[in-house]
Every structure is written in C-alpha cells, then in structure tokens.
Amino acid sequence: MQRLLTRLAVALTLSFILAPILIVIATAFGEASYVQFPPTGLTLKWFAAAARRPEFQSAGWTSLWLAASSTAIATPFALAAAIGLVRGRFRGRDAIQTFLTSPMIVPGIVISLALLVTSAALGVRSDLRLLGAHVLLTLPYLTRSLIASLLRSDTLIEDAAYTLGASRLQTFLIVTLPGLYEGLLAGMLFALIISFDNVSISLFLASAKSNTLPLAVLSYVEFNYDPSIAALSTVLIVVSIASALVLERAVGLRAALGK
Amino acid sequence: MARFSRIELAALIAPGVLIVTLLLLAPAINLLRFSFYAAGSTEIEGDAGFGNYAALLSDPYILRIIGKTLLISLAVTFLCLVISLPISNFVWRAPSRWKTGLMILILSPLLVSVVVSSFGWVVLLGTKGLINNLLIGLGIIGAPLPLLYSDLSLILGLTHVLLPFMILSLVAVLEKIDPLLMEAAATLGAPSHRIWWHVQLPLALPGIGAGTTIVFALAMSSYVTPAVLGPNGPNFITTLIYQYFVNLYDWGNGATLSVVLLIISTAVVALYTTLLSRRILRSTRMS
Amino acid sequence: MASLSIRSVSKAFGANKVLDDVSAEIGTGAFVTLLGPSGCGKTTLLRIIAGLVEADGGEILMDDTNVTRLEARRRGIGMVFQSHALFPHMTVLENVGFGLRMRGVPRQERDRLASEALALVHLRDFGRRYPQQLSGGQQQRVAIARAVVFKPRVLLMDEPFGALDRKLREALQIELRRMTRELGITTIFVTHDQGEALILSDRIALMQAGRLVQIGTPAEVFRQPQTRFAAEFMGVENFFAAQILGSDADGTALACGAARLLSRVQAKLPAGGGIAVGIRAEDIALSDDAHPVNGTSGEVRDVVYHGNTWTISVSSAMGEIVCTTQAGAAANPPANPGETVQLAWRPDAVLVIPDP
C-alpha cells in the first residue's frame, strides 16, 4: 500500500516535470498555424519556418559565440582560483570562495542592472558588456566543479611525483591536470549550457545587434503564438538533453554540478 | 605536499577575485549609489538621500507587490518541498542503474531553458490548452477556465523550474546517510513511517534547509516565469524593476528596488547559513 | 646508497608538538624501522626526511651533505606510500619509469630499466596494465619498483603494507627484506606493527609522543626495553616495581615486595635504585616445584583458550600476573579458576627496565 502510494507520487511528479517539455515537442509537429494540443497532422514546416527567421539566426549565433567565449575566458581564471583555494591554507579562504561563487547567489536581474548602469556610464560596447556578464555567470560554476574535483584528487600522488624528481610545474601538468580532466570537462560543458540558456543576466545588456536566443524567443512569445517557436524550443531541448547525456557519459551529472 | 608561497597563492586567486570585483562588486556599488539619488531619470541628479527608499516602502502598491512576491515564493518553496520528499526518497533507494536516467529526467527543467518550459506551460494552461480541452471534453466544465496568466500558473511554472534544486539538495544529503542506520532502526522495532520520522528526516534536515533556502531565493529573483506566466502588469518585484528601468526610464527607483531584492535574498541565505553553523556547533558540542 | 644523519629535528603543527629534538645516525645500506603507535610522529619524521614537510628546527644530512633546504625532488630518494599513490592515468610501466623520465633517461633505456624493476617484484608481464587493474598487493609491488628503479640514495616507506591482509603482508615483508639486502639500499620503514619491525629491520627506532625512546637491533629492543612504554609496545604484559639489591657478573638480585627475584640482565645501575621489572606472559610457566629460583604462587582468576595457547590470570602476592602456556593436543585447561597454582620463570626472562 505504502509502496503503491510512493510510486503514484513519483509518477505524478515525473509527469509534472516532463509535461510542459514534452508538450512543446509534440506541438512542434502540428499542421495548424496556432499552437494546439493534441496536434493535427504531421509536418516539419515549422522547423523550416523557425530556421528562416533572421532574428533567430543571428541570436542563435550570438548565443553560441557568447557561451563558447565566456567559458573559454572564465576557465583559466576558475582553474587558478580553485587550485589556490584547495591547495592553500590561509585565513579568509572560505570568504574568498564565497565571494568567487557569489554571482550564483546574487539575483541575475540585479547583476544585469548593475552592469547596465555601470557600462552606460563608462560607454562600454554592448557585445563586450554581454561577454563580461557571461564570464561572471560561468566563473562560479567552473570554480565550484573544479574545487570539487581537486578535493577528490589524491594529493599523495603529487607527493609521489615530487619524490620521484618532478618539479611543481611538471607535477601539475603530468600528474594533477590529467586527474582534473573530468571535472574540467564537466564544468565547461555545464558552463556552456548555463550561458546558452541564461535570460536574467542578459536581460538588460543585449541590444538589437547582440540579442541572445532565449531573449529572442522570449520577445517572440510575447506577441506570437505559432508552432515555429515550439519547433525552435524542440531544437533547444534536444541540444540540452544531448549535452546532459554527453556530460553523464563523460563524467556523471553530479560532477558537473559540483555536488 | 609542497606548499604554495603567499605570492604564488595570491597570483593564483587574485585574477578571479579581480573579475568578480570588476564585474559584480563595483557595478553593484554603483547600482547602490543610484538608489540614493533622485528618481525619475537615468542620470544622477540632486543630493544623495534615502528619499527613494522612504517613498517606495511607504507606497501600498509597491508593498503589495513585494508582499505578493514573498508570499508566492513561500508557496513555491512549500510546494517544492512537499513534492520533493517522496521522489528524493525514491531516487535514494533506487538501484544505481536507474539512478542516472531518473536524475536526467528530474534535472531536465534545469537543463532546458526556462523560456522553453514557460512556453510549455502556456500551451498546457491556455484557454485552448490541454487542460481546458480535457476538462471540457470530459464535461466537467462548460467554458474554459482562466488558468493562464494567473497566480496559479505563476506558482506552477516556478515550482516546475525550481523543483530540481530541492530534489538535488535532498538526494545529496540522503546519500550521505548510512543505510545501516535504517536497518538498525528496523531491528530495534521501528515501523517504516517512524524510521522516516525519527531517523531519516532529522538527518536530512541540512538538505531540507539548503533546498528551501535556494528555492526561496531563486523564486524571489526569477524574472522569466512571472513575465510569461504571471498575471498582466507588474506582478512580481522583478517585473516591477523591469518596468521602472525599461518602460519608465526611472533608474533611481529601479535601483532602489533592486537593492531591496538583493537585501532580502542575501538575508535569507545568511539566515540559513547562521542557523546551519549554529546547528553544527551544537551537534559537535554534544559529541 | 647513502648514510643518513637526523640531527635535533623538531616540528610542531600549531600548538601540537609532533617531533621533539629527534636525532639518529643511519649507516649506509641499513634497514631501519621507525616503530611507534599512531600519532607518535614517525610519519612526520619520514616526510621531513623526504623533504615533503619542512622541519621547524634541526638538520637532515645525506652522506654528510646537508639536505635540509633541498627540495624533495632533488634529494634522490625513493618513497613508497601507504595508499601506493600510483598515477591512475599511467600504465604500470609508465608509473615505474616516471622517476627515470624526470631524470631525462631516454625512452628505450627507461622502459628497459622499468621492466627490470618490474621483474624484481615479479610483475614483468604487467607493464601495459593500469594500476586499477591490479590487486592491492600488486599495486604496492609496483609502487616499490617505482621507488627503487632509479637507484635512490635512500628508500623511504610509509606503512606500505598497512592496508593489506596478513598473509599478503607477510609474503611482501619477506620479499622486501630479500630485495633491499640484494640492492644494499639504505631503507627507512615506518610501521606501528612490532612484528613487522622485528622481521624486517637491522635496527628499530622506537618512537613515543614525538621522541625517539630507544634505538637498537631487534633483539636488543625486544630483550632489553629501556622504558616501560618500550616494554609494553614490544609485548611485555607483566610489570612489577622493584629495587636492586645487588649486581654481579651472573646477574642482578632484585626485591619485589616480599618476593626475591634473580635477573640474568646486568643492571648498570647502583644498588637500592627503584626500577621496574617486566616479564613476558609466555616466559612464565605453571610449575610443580614448590620453591623455584624465580616464582610465586596465587589463585587462578580466569582461564582463556586461544587455540595454540591458554592464557591464565593469577592473583598473587606480587600482584596480578598473566601467563600463557602451550595448549598442545590437550583439550583440558591446565588450571581452573579458584585453584592455587605455583608460577615460575627463568632468570633470563626477567627484564630490568631502568626507566619505569
């Protein structure tokens, strides 16, 4: 009886989680020119329609470029900081760690506004301020997953390398870094997803020239209600789930989340 | 292990700290500065003062929106907790070959952009949406219910995107519990619901604390869900901020509200952290 | 191969003094064990010798060269860690060849030497595997090969067999002793297992609370413990406060309360001095002789069967005494609780402990 109740609760929860996602995918294939469920007919025309829209094309490239370059920029900073925080013993270490991961806690809309107000005063280009915002966004996720994998790594093998004649740089490159490979990959993939999906930090910083894909979708949804948005969303869902599967295959989702 | 010298440590950590200082701390201080100057403009004018705070926090319209934001966030937190308890328990006890698949399903709202899942709720809850069609088809209602653009759709949407955070926190803490403790309790004659109440739940408390804190803070500062699924007009502190900045070009009041939001969400996290460290202190003193 | 001098080494972690003025001289090719309970500072001393931890005071010399300020990698030591610390992303051959690689030995030469070292630990055919594919004992043998392949001046081993089961441990102990003697390599071995120390060592350095309490051959440390701690750690169960009555070439006469004891050990101490005597349980026998040279009588409190032996607790005039007797094939206990028995021991079983 109790087991049955638990299973029912689990089934209901999973349907709650999946319903809005699955319904988007289902409606993307319908013939009608408005979103409807259950869909009638079966067509791929909305995918073509979404792909033809220039605002989605340019926003898609902007989002890809933003995710890749912010992750690439933030990674070395996160790696250095994580090594210093895990391998160093000094007062204020916890405070610095909290500070470095604080962009996760501060509401995204506040970060976006603070950057808007400040970059307006300094006259920073809109694509640069967007890039800066996304570096700030990805930095804590990378730092956290690298800290987690450094904490897991065995410091005795570093000792062993020293006693065998390796310098500190050699030890880092030959012994420590290969052990971090999983955490690094996980953190970078997760940072890509976080940046690609983000709305709140980009909210006030994007311009007509540098609009991101989620923002383009958001403004399209406000005024339109046709299945091309469902088609685009389906593509985004497939990309997200595929990256999640890659993450899971490569290292496990937990490692990516730094838990 | 060879130690890093102070200079090496500084060289490793300083660049990251510099980034957060330049891109978060300094701009946040600048935003704070704006909140002290005259409202109604995108420039800094006049004398500094607490005028914006006094005006906004005595305006019943603003206070109602802030109050509603807190209330809805609280409801979302409660819903997330209630929904998470059975499923996190299920994940914890599931055989490990299922766990990965289960976790991917559970985390999917986190991996799919919030814009996409909000759109999904629009499709589900709209007047021609699945729910209304279903209810009409079954003859339960005659005309479609106004489910969308209501507090209900806002709460459902927020619960949906924030649920993974709660489940993750709970599963993380459950996995640290030694399963032998449950078996020990069972051999001591405890029925399963009492094992849950007396052993599992107290041990899971830190995870419940962490999960509720994260969910509440994230709910309060969410923008997309209130904008897409909430009632029309400013319905949440974030959408109100957006209105001040984008529609009214009033950076002074927008900055003031942002500072209020930041203070409340930081206070929630700080409160939890203090409670947690007290708890740890107490339990170490006991042992 | 090098000799090693440890001179007045001290180390504290915060307020916790881990090493307090430790000095020792270790000759070329010697196998020395640092023996002591956990927390006695033996691992810290080993890590200071390795250069992984910096001492607060004192010096380490190798072949009369001061290496105190030298980095670990330049000391030319080989080290084996308790959890083997093999590089998980390198093959066994790459692991063993790592020290040679750091020394700039070309690839072919490196692989040849590494294979030889693997042959030495009977793992010639395992070079292409990864550490995770080996058993615990095999992993530790690879770690040993990795530490000796580049002919280090000193080999340091930190409880290398601690995580292994007893049978495997004993096999590896014998193999290690053969190998270090063949190679003639100066070895410092850390353990908390006195049996392991006795089997392996040329000399045992016994440590307690950051101090070196006794250093000597296994037989010296076993037969002539200098402190009560040393005696206890080397397995002595029975202790009695005693006074020296007199000493001559034959031995020492002692008073232990009303009882008189004769020890074969020559106490280098003046008569009248208060000392302790220790007697191992297995050196005490049940006796038919009513008046043995050394002995006492008492009432049996408890008898416990251990398979090969019996342990008998006796309450005597000298105090509580524990003795063990061989069980042999007999199924019956040698005595029963409540019975009065006579205990006897030979004069050379009486250990004189100058520092009780």
Describe this structure in words.
Chain A has helices at 2-27, 45-52, 54-87, 93-101, 108-122, 126-152, 155-163, 168-197, 213-223, 227-250, 253-257. The two termini of chain A are 34 Å apart. Chain A has two domains: 1-43; 47-257, Orthogonal Bundle (MetI-like fold). Chain A is mostly helical and 259 residues long. Chain B is mainly α. Chain B has helices at 6-34, 51-56, 60-93, 96-111, 114-125, 130-137, 151-174, 179-187, 192-220, 224-229, 237-247, 251-286. Chain B has twelve helices and no strands. In chain B, 41% of the residues are buried. Chain B has one domain (50-286): MetI-like fold (Orthogonal Bundle), CATH 1.10.3720. With 356 residues, chain C is an alpha+beta fold. Chain C has two domains: 4-224, 3-Layer(aba) Sandwich (Rossmann fold), CATH 3.40.50; 236-353, Nucleic acid-binding proteins (OB fold (Dihydrolipoamide Acetyltransferase, E2P)). Chain C has eight helices and 20 strands. A six-stranded mixed sheet of chain C has the order 6-7-8-3-9-10, sandwiched between helices. In chain C, strands 13-12-11-14-20 form a five-stranded antiparallel sheet, with no helix packed on it. Chain C has a five-stranded antiparallel sheet with strand order 15-19-16-17-18, with no helix packed on it. Chain C starts with a strand and ends with a strand. The model of chain C has no long low-confidence stretch (mean pLDDT 89). The chains are: A mainly alpha (259), B mainly alpha (287), C alpha+beta (356). Chains in contact: A-B, A-C. The interface between A and B is large, with 93 and 83 residues.
